[in-house]
Amino acid sequence: MTSPSPCPCSNPQDPQVVSNQPGLAAISDRVDDFTGFRRALLRPLTGERALGPWRPAVGDLGLQYLEWWAYIGDVLTFYNERIANESYLRTAQFPESIAGLVALLGYVPAPGLAATGVVGAVRTTKHPAEPVIIPNGMQLSSTPTPGVPPQTFEAAAARFPGPSDVAAALLHNRLLDVRTNDSGQDVGPASVLLAGKVSGVKAGDDLLLVEKGWAGRNDNWAAVTVASVDPETDPDSGAVNTRVAFTSAAIWGTVKESSFVGIDPGILGQVVLSPSASGSSKFQILSNTSLFDMSNVWKQGLLQTAPGLSGLRGALGSLGSIGTVQPSGPSAPTGPRLTHSYRLIKSTADASLWNLTSTDPAPVKNTTNPVVVSLSATVRSIRPGDLVFFDGGTAASSVLGHVTGTSDKMGKTDFPGKTDTSIVVPYTRLTVRTSDPATLGGYTTSSPVTVRHAFRDVGSVLPNPPAPLSALPVAVKVHGGFSLRPGVSQALLEDANGAGTLVQVAPNPTSDGSTQLVLTGLPPAQETFDPPLQLPLRLLFDVVSVSRGTTVNNEVLGSGNAAVVNQRFTLKKSPLTYLANGAGWTAALSVYVDGIKWTEVPTLYRQAHNAQVYVVERAPDQSATVRFGDGLNGSRLPSGSGNVVATYRYGSGAASPPAGRLTTMLSRQPNLAAVHNPVPVNGGKDPQSPANVKTDAPASVFTFGRAISAVDYEVVAAQAAGVSRVKAYWTFDAAAQRTLVKIYVNDDAGGVTSASRALAGSDDPNRPVAVAAATQIEVSISARLVVSADRIVDDVVAAATAAFADPDTGAFSPAAMGIGQWLYRSHVDAALSVPGVVAVHQLRVTWHRPALNQLSILDEMADPGEGSFFSLPATNLTLSGVPDA
Fold it and tell me: Which CATH number does the domain 704-773 belong to among 3.40.720.10, 1.10.10.10, 3.30.300.30, 3.40.1170.10?
């Protein structure tokens, strides 16, 4: 029986064996620590004897001396390991180390960039003839918002003669069928707008919506029932009008029933069409049935949706397919119905059809126009040209008619209780033209029909006011005295809430003499608005360019000394403002030596010995230092006292004020009343993070300024200012019949512009490139975290929140969630698994599926699709915590 192996801890390895596998994020390079060094120093070497029972006594510093050496060994190995890690880009942690390593490649980490944008200047009304002058550097301050402190912006110089703004009214929608249902029928409005305050109409009233001058020759009328009557304020003029809503959308003309009645579908067989002597169509069912007159079939709706009629399609021929067959006669026009052509009317008197037993008159004679209708009494208030509505109680049995003639007649009917005696009854006979004579001809003495007449207008039908603006281009109307001043082609469009966009403005010639302008979006500004822009709208023509940063004028950096090479001076304020310039950036800095402006260059290498140049060096804390030459590469500074002066701006970063917040003027200007910013500033960017530098710096040597592969395009675009996400796709351009590189970048206009400029000089001329903004797909996450009993619940919840919200390392940050990257439920679970979380309950992850326009629940995974990426706004994350029981 073999003896058991000794315990590994009984004979520990000192020093430790250092071994590192490739691809690690950190290097292990400590041969030992304090404990190991102390143990090794106490262990006897070969030929030595351990001290055995020795113990330190008072005044004996032997053991302390040995432990000092152990401490020294521990400290030295710690720093050796850190030096080893900081010597390689993948394992380096300190920004200084990373910056030094990438400098060997000639790579310069991107600085923070200042946001830029435009604001609209609004002049006072006291002196409209005087110009507005915006001095260069006029300062504006933003109102703080959550996560965005107050920021200072400065304006570029500008001069505007006026006018500075004008109200822009959208054109009223003159179509009557603006508000329709989704039934697919030829439907009218669900409501109409009447001028002013309307009385005399209430919910439940039966009204007619009828074309002016209607004469019974078409279906341009509808019977409606009032659902509500409400005041409505015109968003442009402020006038109070009246909205009359109907119980359902208006249906033009007589509505046919869709049920199959009167014939058992089971007996239907082959159908044969044959014309009758009168020219009306008849059909014969080849079973024990007789001929049916088509007019009766139309009236009863027998050929609408009867089951078993699929075999009729071929036999009916030109009459149409089953389910869509309509009666003969006038049909509703397909052209637009305009509001000024329609009336909303109400009946003020009723009559009834002839309802007495007699052979003459009958309620209705013949079924062709004009139809002769007999009333049950004399009604002299009905005159030729009037409208009469035969209300049968249902939409299918009600007909509108136009009276073409009236006459008073004498009719006979049986005396009550006696069949051989008749009495004479006076009545009114009408000749009526209608679009549906067949239905009118089907009335009998027993038909429950009310004849409504003496119509009056409820009110004047107005065009529906324009809906909120949801997309460009659009035509707007301005006041008659307005004229677009020469050279002006751009303006800021602002809505009632202060939101808007930058638009191209052009005159819109009209035939009615009104003054109109056409507004189109200026790329890359948005052309669709969600939510829509709310009325009223205003155009701001005095557009002023602004950028973030505060100017420091004539700061004395120091004194030049011709005996010193490479003199350096650090700016007192930081961070130095950088503005995007094409694919790169430019510092807002001017340096003067003895009153002469020197020039900034990227490097002093190979500069002339007398070149008046300097370089700007940025420390990891974003402080900026100006360095001058040594007399060989760039000129030395001349000697002088306080002769090196700088004017510069400071301030930058990604956090930017939203629209409507950059409105505070820090100094008043003559004739300037206010500034508005309906368009948010953009393009601000934080300094490139060390994590991004580690990725982008090595990738920069792949391209050497030239893009060939899809990866090359991504690398070039990713290095552009303001780009945080990028993805390249090879696609096919159907129009040009060739391959196309489609580059998607983060969903802001500044990123698209910057990436386009970066690729303009480095793309392959044989491969066209298109740059577009990626689509952001919002995700919502909610969960309840069970927190370990030894942890503070709020702290753990805060850590889990940070695991999502951190802009550099969060689960939905650009580094962790790229364009086109799938979202996995395990990705969410991993982010929630911060220290202290025991379990995750009630986890719900939802996202909006753009293709189906619906909200979807994430079960396992989700594909955003080409050019889209998942994002998690802070407001969409709801985490709570409970202690573990």
Answer: 3.30.300.30
